[in-house]
Amino acid sequence: RTVYINGDFVPESEAKISIFDRGFLFADAVYEVMAVLNGRLLENAGHIARLERSCRELKLRLPVTAAALEAIQNKLIAVNQLREGAIYLQLSRGSTGDREFDFPQAEVEPTLLLFTQARPVIDNVKARTGIRVVTVEDIRWHRRDIKTVGLLAPCLAKEYAHSQGADDAFLVEDGFITEGSSSNAWIVTEQGTLVTRQLSTDILHGITRRSLLALAARHGIPFEERPFSVEEVYRAGEAFISSATSFIWPVVEIDGKPIGGGKPGRVTLALRNIYVEMAL
Ligand code: PDD
Protein backbone atom coordinates (compact mmCIF):
# COMPACT_ATOMS: atom_id res chain seq x y z
CA ARG A 1 0.00 0.00 0.00
CA THR A 2 0.91 3.59 -0.54
CA VAL A 3 0.09 5.62 2.57
CA TYR A 4 0.07 9.33 3.37
CA ILE A 5 2.10 10.90 6.16
CA ASN A 6 2.65 14.63 6.73
CA GLY A 7 2.60 15.72 3.10
CA ASP A 8 4.20 12.61 1.57
CA PHE A 9 2.79 9.60 -0.26
CA VAL A 10 5.13 6.69 0.55
CA PRO A 11 5.14 2.86 0.67
CA GLU A 12 3.73 1.79 4.08
CA SER A 13 7.11 0.34 5.13
CA GLU A 14 8.69 3.78 4.76
CA ALA A 15 6.16 5.75 6.83
CA LYS A 16 7.73 6.66 10.19
CA ILE A 17 6.65 8.59 13.29
CA SER A 18 8.67 9.67 16.33
CA ILE A 19 8.61 7.47 19.45
CA PHE A 20 7.72 10.74 21.24
CA ASP A 21 4.60 11.31 19.15
CA ARG A 22 1.81 12.29 21.56
CA GLY A 23 -0.62 10.05 19.69
CA PHE A 24 1.63 7.11 20.57
CA LEU A 25 2.45 8.14 24.17
CA PHE A 26 -0.89 9.62 25.33
CA ALA A 27 -3.47 8.67 22.69
CA ASP A 28 -3.48 12.45 22.10
CA ALA A 29 -4.97 12.04 18.65
CA VAL A 30 -8.28 11.89 16.81
CA TYR A 31 -9.35 9.75 13.87
CA GLU A 32 -12.00 9.12 11.26
CA VAL A 33 -13.00 6.13 9.14
CA MET A 34 -14.72 6.85 5.83
CA ALA A 35 -16.33 4.18 3.66
CA VAL A 36 -15.24 3.88 0.01
CA LEU A 37 -17.65 2.40 -2.54
CA ASN A 38 -16.91 2.03 -6.25
CA GLY A 39 -13.77 4.09 -5.65
CA ARG A 40 -15.79 6.98 -4.21
CA LEU A 41 -15.89 8.42 -0.69
CA LEU A 42 -19.19 8.11 1.15
CA GLU A 43 -20.51 10.87 3.45
CA ASN A 44 -17.09 12.51 3.48
CA ALA A 45 -18.36 16.00 4.34
CA GLY A 46 -19.99 14.63 7.50
CA HIS A 47 -16.82 12.84 8.55
CA ILE A 48 -14.64 15.89 7.96
CA ALA A 49 -17.08 18.09 9.89
CA ARG A 50 -16.90 15.65 12.81
CA LEU A 51 -13.08 15.62 12.57
CA GLU A 52 -13.07 19.42 12.77
CA ARG A 53 -15.32 19.23 15.83
CA SER A 54 -13.06 16.65 17.53
CA CYS A 55 -10.10 18.95 16.82
CA ARG A 56 -11.89 21.97 18.33
CA GLU A 57 -12.80 20.05 21.48
CA LEU A 58 -9.15 19.02 22.01
CA LYS A 59 -7.50 22.24 20.73
CA LEU A 60 -5.83 20.23 17.99
CA ARG A 61 -4.71 22.06 14.85
CA LEU A 62 -5.85 20.50 11.58
CA PRO A 63 -2.93 21.39 9.28
CA VAL A 64 -4.87 21.14 6.00
CA THR A 65 -8.17 22.46 4.66
CA ALA A 66 -11.17 20.18 4.11
CA ALA A 67 -10.61 20.50 0.34
CA ALA A 68 -6.93 19.53 0.64
CA LEU A 69 -7.89 16.58 2.82
CA GLU A 70 -10.33 15.33 0.24
CA ALA A 71 -7.67 15.63 -2.47
CA ILE A 72 -5.31 13.51 -0.34
CA GLN A 73 -8.05 10.91 0.20
CA ASN A 74 -8.87 10.72 -3.50
CA LYS A 75 -5.20 10.40 -4.47
CA LEU A 76 -4.78 7.50 -2.01
CA ILE A 77 -7.87 5.80 -3.46
CA ALA A 78 -6.45 6.23 -6.97
CA VAL A 79 -2.86 5.09 -6.33
CA ASN A 80 -4.05 2.06 -4.35
CA GLN A 81 -6.85 1.33 -6.85
CA LEU A 82 -9.28 0.99 -3.95
CA ARG A 83 -12.79 0.06 -5.08
CA GLU A 84 -14.44 -0.94 -1.81
CA GLY A 85 -13.38 -0.54 1.80
CA ALA A 86 -12.36 2.38 3.94
CA ILE A 87 -9.93 5.24 4.48
CA TYR A 88 -8.44 5.60 7.94
CA LEU A 89 -7.32 9.09 8.93
CA GLN A 90 -5.47 10.02 12.12
CA LEU A 91 -4.26 13.36 13.44
CA SER A 92 -2.08 13.61 16.54
CA ARG A 93 -0.63 16.58 18.40
CA GLY A 94 2.83 15.61 17.15
CA SER A 95 6.09 15.37 19.08
CA THR A 96 8.24 17.72 21.15
CA GLY A 97 11.05 15.17 21.38
CA ASP A 98 10.28 14.14 24.96
CA ARG A 99 7.41 12.91 27.16
CA GLU A 100 5.58 15.85 28.76
CA PHE A 101 1.92 15.79 29.79
CA ASP A 102 1.42 19.51 29.12
CA PHE A 103 0.38 20.57 25.64
CA PRO A 104 3.43 21.89 23.71
CA GLN A 105 3.99 25.63 24.27
CA ALA A 106 5.69 26.22 20.95
CA GLU A 107 4.08 25.54 17.58
CA VAL A 108 4.49 21.80 16.92
CA GLU A 109 3.75 20.08 13.57
CA PRO A 110 0.79 17.72 14.09
CA THR A 111 1.13 14.20 12.66
CA LEU A 112 -1.42 13.55 9.92
CA LEU A 113 -1.60 10.08 8.41
CA LEU A 114 -4.03 8.27 6.15
CA PHE A 115 -4.19 4.77 4.72
CA THR A 116 -6.63 2.65 2.73
CA GLN A 117 -8.24 -0.64 3.78
CA ALA A 118 -9.73 -2.91 1.10
CA ARG A 119 -12.64 -5.02 2.37
CA PRO A 120 -16.14 -5.99 1.26
CA VAL A 121 -18.84 -3.59 2.43
CA ILE A 122 -21.86 -4.36 0.23
CA ASP A 123 -21.48 -8.12 -0.05
CA ASN A 124 -20.28 -8.71 3.50
CA VAL A 125 -21.13 -12.06 5.06
CA LYS A 126 -22.02 -10.43 8.40
CA ALA A 127 -24.63 -8.28 6.68
CA ARG A 128 -26.34 -11.49 5.59
CA THR A 129 -25.93 -13.73 8.63
CA GLY A 130 -25.91 -11.08 11.36
CA ILE A 131 -23.69 -11.01 14.43
CA ARG A 132 -23.89 -12.32 17.99
CA VAL A 133 -23.17 -9.85 20.78
CA VAL A 134 -22.60 -10.01 24.52
CA THR A 135 -23.19 -7.18 26.98
CA VAL A 136 -20.22 -5.74 28.85
CA GLU A 137 -19.83 -2.78 31.18
CA ASP A 138 -18.98 0.46 29.38
CA ILE A 139 -15.70 1.50 31.04
CA ARG A 140 -14.81 4.25 28.51
CA TRP A 141 -14.16 7.87 29.48
CA HIS A 142 -16.96 10.47 29.55
CA ARG A 143 -16.29 12.24 26.22
CA ARG A 144 -17.28 9.52 23.77
CA ASP A 145 -18.52 12.22 21.39
CA ILE A 146 -14.87 13.01 20.61
CA LYS A 147 -13.41 10.43 18.21
CA THR A 148 -10.04 9.86 19.92
CA VAL A 149 -7.69 6.93 19.37
CA GLY A 150 -7.93 5.97 23.07
CA LEU A 151 -9.61 2.69 22.16
CA LEU A 152 -8.35 0.20 24.75
CA ALA A 153 -11.82 -0.19 26.35
CA PRO A 154 -13.44 -1.18 23.01
CA CYS A 155 -10.48 -3.54 22.30
CA LEU A 156 -11.08 -5.22 25.70
CA ALA A 157 -14.82 -5.42 24.99
CA LYS A 158 -14.22 -7.11 21.61
CA GLU A 159 -11.66 -9.46 23.14
CA TYR A 160 -14.17 -10.41 25.87
CA ALA A 161 -16.86 -10.97 23.21
CA HIS A 162 -14.55 -13.29 21.26
CA SER A 163 -13.65 -15.19 24.46
CA GLN A 164 -17.40 -15.83 24.90
CA GLY A 165 -17.77 -17.10 21.33
CA ALA A 166 -19.55 -13.90 20.21
CA ASP A 167 -18.67 -11.44 17.45
CA ASP A 168 -18.96 -8.13 19.28
CA ALA A 169 -20.13 -6.38 22.42
CA PHE A 170 -22.94 -4.05 23.44
CA LEU A 171 -21.62 -1.58 26.03
CA VAL A 172 -23.80 -1.04 29.10
CA GLU A 173 -23.98 1.87 31.54
CA ASP A 174 -26.49 1.88 34.43
CA GLY A 175 -28.46 -0.91 32.79
CA PHE A 176 -28.77 0.89 29.44
CA ILE A 177 -26.94 0.26 26.17
CA THR A 178 -24.69 3.14 25.13
CA GLU A 179 -23.24 1.78 21.86
CA GLY A 180 -21.62 -1.17 20.18
CA SER A 181 -17.84 -1.33 20.75
CA SER A 182 -17.20 0.48 17.44
CA SER A 183 -20.72 1.24 16.21
CA ASN A 184 -24.05 2.76 17.21
CA ALA A 185 -26.60 0.33 18.66
CA TRP A 186 -30.24 0.05 17.60
CA ILE A 187 -33.31 -2.04 18.33
CA VAL A 188 -36.62 -2.39 16.54
CA THR A 189 -39.53 -2.82 18.96
CA GLU A 190 -42.23 -5.46 18.51
CA GLN A 191 -44.37 -2.58 17.15
CA GLY A 192 -41.76 -1.82 14.47
CA THR A 193 -40.31 1.40 15.94
CA LEU A 194 -36.58 2.05 15.56
CA VAL A 195 -34.87 3.01 18.81
CA THR A 196 -31.36 4.40 19.19
CA ARG A 197 -29.82 6.43 22.00
CA GLN A 198 -30.09 10.22 21.77
CA LEU A 199 -27.00 12.35 21.10
CA SER A 200 -24.94 13.39 24.14
CA THR A 201 -21.36 13.04 25.37
CA ASP A 202 -22.23 9.37 26.17
CA ILE A 203 -21.95 8.23 22.54
CA LEU A 204 -20.17 8.96 19.29
CA HIS A 205 -22.37 10.97 16.95
CA GLY A 206 -22.35 8.43 14.16
CA ILE A 207 -22.50 9.70 10.60
CA THR A 208 -24.28 6.51 9.53
CA ARG A 209 -26.69 6.88 12.48
CA ARG A 210 -27.64 10.38 11.32
CA SER A 211 -28.24 9.27 7.72
CA LEU A 212 -30.31 6.29 8.83
CA LEU A 213 -32.59 8.54 10.91
CA ALA A 214 -33.04 10.86 7.92
CA LEU A 215 -33.83 7.89 5.65
CA ALA A 216 -36.26 6.45 8.22
CA ALA A 217 -38.09 9.80 8.34
CA ARG A 218 -38.27 9.95 4.54
CA HIS A 219 -39.59 6.38 4.27
CA GLY A 220 -42.13 6.71 7.08
CA ILE A 221 -40.39 4.30 9.45
CA PRO A 222 -41.17 5.46 13.02
CA PHE A 223 -38.19 6.06 15.31
CA GLU A 224 -37.36 7.23 18.83
CA GLU A 225 -34.07 8.63 20.12
CA ARG A 226 -33.81 7.48 23.74
CA PRO A 227 -31.85 5.10 25.94
CA PHE A 228 -32.89 1.43 25.88
CA SER A 229 -32.15 -1.17 28.53
CA VAL A 230 -30.56 -4.60 28.26
CA GLU A 231 -33.98 -6.13 29.06
CA GLU A 232 -35.50 -4.19 26.17
CA VAL A 233 -32.97 -5.71 23.79
CA TYR A 234 -33.83 -9.19 25.13
CA ARG A 235 -37.49 -8.48 24.25
CA ALA A 236 -36.85 -6.59 21.00
CA GLY A 237 -38.19 -7.76 17.66
CA GLU A 238 -34.89 -6.89 15.94
CA ALA A 239 -31.52 -5.30 16.68
CA PHE A 240 -28.62 -4.00 14.60
CA ILE A 241 -25.46 -1.92 14.65
CA SER A 242 -24.46 0.92 12.32
CA SER A 243 -21.06 2.30 11.30
CA ALA A 244 -19.13 3.51 8.27
CA THR A 245 -17.48 0.11 7.88
CA SER A 246 -20.54 -2.11 8.36
CA PHE A 247 -23.35 0.25 7.23
CA ILE A 248 -25.84 -2.02 9.05
CA TRP A 249 -25.18 -5.45 10.50
CA PRO A 250 -28.12 -7.31 12.02
CA VAL A 251 -27.71 -8.51 15.61
CA VAL A 252 -29.28 -11.95 15.88
CA GLU A 253 -28.24 -12.98 19.39
CA ILE A 254 -27.48 -11.19 22.67
CA ASP A 255 -26.01 -12.89 25.75
CA GLY A 256 -26.84 -16.27 24.23
CA LYS A 257 -30.53 -15.37 23.63
CA PRO A 258 -31.87 -15.19 20.07
CA ILE A 259 -33.34 -11.90 18.84
CA GLY A 260 -36.19 -12.13 16.33
CA GLY A 261 -35.91 -15.91 16.20
CA GLY A 262 -32.15 -15.65 15.61
CA LYS A 263 -32.51 -14.27 12.05
CA PRO A 264 -31.82 -10.79 10.60
CA GLY A 265 -34.97 -8.68 10.98
CA ARG A 266 -37.27 -7.41 8.23
CA VAL A 267 -37.01 -3.70 9.15
CA THR A 268 -33.23 -4.06 9.62
CA LEU A 269 -32.73 -5.51 6.14
CA ALA A 270 -35.12 -3.01 4.56
CA LEU A 271 -33.22 -0.11 6.13
CA ARG A 272 -29.90 -1.58 5.02
CA ASN A 273 -31.22 -1.83 1.46
CA ILE A 274 -32.41 1.78 1.54
CA TYR A 275 -28.99 2.89 2.81
CA VAL A 276 -27.08 0.84 0.21
CA GLU A 277 -29.27 2.28 -2.56
CA MET A 278 -28.46 5.78 -1.36
CA ALA A 279 -24.73 4.92 -1.18
CA LEU A 280 -24.36 3.36 -4.63
N1 PDD B 1 -16.20 3.36 14.46
N2 PDD B 1 -19.73 4.52 17.92
C1 PDD B 1 -18.43 4.20 18.06
C2 PDD B 1 -17.89 4.02 19.43
C3 PDD B 1 -17.62 4.06 16.91
O1 PDD B 1 -16.33 3.77 17.06
C4 PDD B 1 -18.19 4.22 15.62
C5 PDD B 1 -17.37 4.12 14.36
C6 PDD B 1 -19.56 4.54 15.53
C7 PDD B 1 -20.26 4.74 14.20
O2 PDD B 1 -19.93 5.99 13.63
P1 PDD B 1 -19.96 6.21 12.06
O3 PDD B 1 -21.33 5.81 11.58
O4 PDD B 1 -19.70 7.65 11.89
O5 PDD B 1 -18.89 5.32 11.50
C8 PDD B 1 -20.29 4.70 16.70
C9 PDD B 1 -15.29 3.29 13.34
C10 PDD B 1 -15.89 2.70 12.13
C11 PDD B 1 -14.03 2.60 13.81
O6 PDD B 1 -13.62 2.89 14.92
O7 PDD B 1 -13.45 1.81 13.05
UniProtKB/TrEMBL annotation:
It catalyses: 4-amino-4-deoxychorismate = 4-aminobenzoate + pyruvate + H(+); L-valine + 2-oxoglutarate = 3-methyl-2-oxobutanoate + L-glutamate; L-isoleucine + 2-oxoglutarate = (S)-3-methyl-2-oxopentanoate + L-glutamate; L-leucine + 2-oxoglutarate = 4-methyl-2-oxopentanoate + L-glutamate. Its cofactor is pyridoxal 5'-phosphate. Belongs to the class-IV pyridoxal-phosphate-dependent aminotransferase family. Keywords: Folate biosynthesis, Pyridoxal phosphate. The keyword Metal-binding does not apply. Pfam families: Aminotran_4. One of its GO terms (molecular function) is branched-chain-amino-acid transaminase activity. Its EC number is 2.6.1.42, 4.1.3.38. Involved in the biosynthesis of p-aminobenzoate (PABA), a precursor of tetrahydrofolate. Converts 4-amino-4-deoxychorismate into 4-aminobenzoate (PABA) and pyruvate. Acts on leucine, isoleucine and valine. This is Aminodeoxychorismate lyase. Pathway: Amino-acid biosynthesis; L-valine biosynthesis; L-valine from pyruvate: step 4/4; Amino-acid biosynthesis; L-isoleucine biosynthesis; L-isoleucine from 2-oxobutanoate: step 4/4; Cofactor biosynthesis; tetrahydrofolate biosynthesis; 4-aminobenzoate from chorismate: step 2/2; Amino-acid biosynthesis; L-leucine biosynthesis; L-leucine from 3-methyl-2-oxobutanoate: step 4/4. InterPro entries: Aminotrans_IV, Aminotransferase-like, BCAT-like_C, BCAT-like_N, Class-IV_PLP-Dep_Aminotrnsfr. One of its GO terms (cellular component) is cytosol. It comes from Sodalis ligni. GO terms for biological process: amino acid biosynthetic process; folic acid biosynthetic process.
